[in-house]
Amino acid sequence: MAARAIWNGTLRAGNLTLPVQVFSAAKDKGVQFHLLHAKDKTQVQQRMVHPETGEPVPKERIRRGVEVDPGVFVFVEPEEVEALAPPASRDLRIERFVPAGTVPAAAIDRPYWLGPHGEAEHARYFALADALDKGTREGIASWVMRKRQYRGVLRAEDGYLVLSTLRLGATLIRTEDLEAPGGESVDARERTMAKQLVAALEGPFDPSAFKDTYRARVEELVEAKARGRRTTVRKFKPKKPAGQDLSRLLQASLKHAAKKQKAG
Amino acid sequence: MPPRSKRQVDDQEAAQILEAARPRSFWSGTITFGLVSVPVDLYPAAREERSSLRTLDEEGTPLRRQYWCPKEERPLDADEIVRGVEVSDGKWVTVTDAELEGLEPEKTRDISLQRFVPRQDLPPAYFETGYVLTPGGRSTKAYKLLAAAMEESGRAGIATFVLREREHVVAILAEHGILRAETLRFPDEVRSPREVGLPARPKTIPPTTAKAAEKAVATGKGTALPKDLLEDPREAAMQQLVQKKLRQKKDVARTEEAGPEMSEPVDLLSVIRERMGAPGGTKTRVRRRT
Questions:
Q1: Chain A residues close to B271, C-beta within 8 Å
Q2: Quick one: closest CA in B to A185, which residue?
Q3: Cβ contact B65–A149 (<8 Å)
Q4: Per residue in B59-79, is it b (16+ CB within 10 Å) or e — as a string?
């Protein structure tokens, strides 16, 4: 079943224009909990109350503002907030292409698939995906959606275009701003063994091997309780770490990995 | 990002408050790699700043959020509230914290690297949240060894681990001698192009079309990112507006008290830098001399 596009627009990169549709590539799963008043299962609401009196403030008396100094607020009217919105546009502008990996991983928020809008666009869509699929360049995108300015990075994956939104205004920690830990340097022999161990444990990335067992258990619990069944509660057990001689442990690990490989 | 569940939102809020109060890692534990243990601390690689817009009354007093029963028209205490799931229209199943705790995965402090994959095989659509790892123990040797082995072989380690009561799939990556982690979405949380309904690739693409696309991608050899790429234009515009109104002395309210939760922001970068340089620093400080 085809998903619904969340946005339609025109990708513009230099002379290239390409009508596209945007689809969510991630979906959040999980049991949706609500807060209830225990007594009669009334859904709990949130009210804005005065910090001292605890009295709820009615909607028409609620205002918004920015604190400019401790205790000093500047009121901002809803119309003023509205006026800050960027002008509406249907353009997905690719501002520039940069070497792949230039956008820091920490800045990446959510992925979206781009699809060609209309059969006539297929060739141009896949040509652009091919050009990016070489993995050497990525596009810096900018667009306006739901009255907000978005920025993103355009890449290719599995022969299709992926647009990932960027976190704006966040504090980011990039590894290039950090210094690697100091201390004792790594022994050459240990380094070789560690690389051998990495190689011995190598395999393809197989996401289907992973299941969210916690989510499944919560769903089971809710279902069981809906049918009026009782449930049991399990205890957890912690594990403790051990001291180590790196060379000896690496050797033993390599032996173990080799045995496992032989066995199948 | 839309919240997954109320429970998770509460946990995130709690974690944020905790983090603001004291610069500390989210998680401490051990990466195991064969029989080698690498003690690490986990820090978020991105921290989203809150909007500066506050909710006030007409006098400019910052208001507080309060749980409220609309039926009885009164505030509710935490112990009067339970979590519930709507199983059918108007029918609720309540779940206690103790029950949820019983469902939590075993609280191990291990990230056991079972498999290493070529880095480029990790599909970005799976990446969820990024973390930076700092050495946790007193020795940095094992940390540096794992980072060097993965970086030199271009591999990333895959494992599952437990963070905030939930099991996550995590990729451990090495960059510039530093370990970082990305939690990965579960496969049913990712839509494939086929699921979305994207068309199949046409058999042939006209060479002129392919050339035009390649040319578009190759032009603008700029290697740098736009300076303001990661700035929030809305927040910047808001600050401008507010400064202008302040100069005009328009709509300014003075209250007795400062707004709530205006604690000094923690400088995450300097905390992580310090931890990179001096692993186990706080632990050595408290050690008693005999």
A1: none
A2: B141
A3: no
A4: ebbbbeebbbbeeeeeebeee
In the DSSP assignment, the letter for residue A136 is S
Beta-carbon pairs below 8 A across chains A and B = 563
Which domains can be identified in chain B, with CATH numbers?
Answer: 26-45+110-190+268-276 (2.40.290.10)
Chain A environment of B191 (Cβ under 8 Å) = 3, 23-27, 113
pLDDT tens for each residue of A169-228: 988 898 888 999 988 888 899 999 999 999 999 999 988 888 888 888 888 888 888 888
Residues in chain B within 8 Å Cβ distance of A6: none
Contact at 8 Å (CB) between A35 and B8?
no
Nearest-Cα distance to chain B for A255, in Å, is 10
Q: Does A246 touch chain B (CB under 8 A)?
A: yes
pLDDT in tens, B214-248: 999 987 656 677 878 899 999 999 999 999 999 99
Of B84, B121, B169, the CB nearest to A34: B84
Minimal Cβ distance to B116: which of A31, A198, A226:
A198
A124 at B interface, C-beta within 8 A: yes
Q: Which residue from B51, B185, B27 is spatially nearest to B107, judged by alpha carbons?
A: B27
Query: In the β-sheet with A34-37, what is the strand arrangement from edge to edge?
Result: A42-43, A34-37, B81-88, B91-95
- Is the Cβ of A55 closer than 8 Å to some Cβ of chain B? no
Largest CA distance in chain A: 74
Which of A149, A205, A213 is the best residue to mutate to test the B interface, defined by the most B CB atoms within 10 Å of its own CB?
A205
Burial per residue of A112-149, b for 16 or more beta-carbon CB atoms within 10 angstroms, e otherwise: bbbbbbeeebbbbbbbbbbbbbeeebbbbbbbbbeeeb
> pLDDT tens digit string along B73-94?
999 998 899 999 988 888 899 9
Specify the DSSP class assigned to residue B223.
-
Task: Provide the pLDDT for residue B39.
Answer: 92
Q: Which two tokens stand for residue A149?
A: 């300015």
Q: How far is A215 from B68, CA to CA, in rounded Å?
A: 29
Mean pLDDT, all residues of chain A: 88
ipTM of the complex: 0.83
pLDDT of residue B197: 94
Q: What is the pLDDT of residue A182?
A: 85
In Å, how far is B266's CA from the nearest CA of chain A? 11
Amino acid at the residue A78: P
Beta-ladder partners of B46: A172
Global pTM reads 0.83
What proportion of chain B, given as a percentage, has pLDDT over 90? 47
- Confidence (pLDDT) at B287: 32
- Give the CA angle between residues A202, A204, A210 to the nearest 5°: 105
Residues of chain A with Cβ-Cβ distance to B123 below 8 Å are 157-158, 205, 207
Residues in chain A with CB shorter than 8 Å from the CB of B93 are 222, 225-226
In this prediction, residues A64-76 reach a mean pLDDT of 92
What is the band of A238 on the pLDDT scale with cuts at 50, 70, 90? Answer: very low
